[in-house]
Amino acid sequence: MTYCSQYPKQNNTNQGGKVAYWKITERHSIMIGNGSEGKAFVMKRMIMLIAGFLVIDFMTKRLMDADLQLHERNEIVEGYLSWQLYYNPGATLGLLEGYTELLIGLQILIVLLLSYGYWQANPKTLLVKTGFALIISGGLSNLIDRIQYGYVIDFISIKGSPGIFNVADMEIRFGFIMIVALYLMRRFTIPFLDKLENPIQKSERS
Fold this sequence. Notes:
Shape: globular
Mean pLDDT: 77
Strand order of the largest sheet: 1-3-2
Radius of gyration: 21 Å
Strand content: 15-25%
Number of helices: 6
Helix content: 40-55%
Largest sheet: 3 strands, antiparallel
Order of helices and strands: EEEHEEHHEHHH
Low-confidence stretches: 1-19, 28-35, 196-202
Structural class: alpha+beta
């Protein structure tokens, strides 16, 4: 792979022998191949990101479900953080409890809209893609739980938090924060995004 500080103006998956890039920031990218090779790399990377986040949430839920009794509390940081197994039949804060079919339909719709939004936005930077991957994988994981069990497995309890949640919920929140923060950084031209130095140029000067 070749690191490039100034990439061509064409898209990062151009066809016809043109170079394809995986952009890290608006001014920094990694050359990943030509034409279909670059496009395949981008798709595989996005699928890998979503699958990786799905596995993390799946493993933590199954581990807590196996080790804890329902409603059992295990203090991790006394007074601040604990594991407490809870089967949540509703949405956040127990909303729509008893409306499982409606919740499943809404979650499917949300995941589809997010996927469509990603497709339409066609983000070029790795950080924005990661944000979308977090949100989509979190939504998918909770959707799988609800279809399989009729409830979502929650187990993280933090002092001051209004409810018990899971890793998928954290993924959704962090992904949303990432996308909004990166948008605001680009909107107001945060200096460090534009002034990151090409390590090749840096090494040439030293």
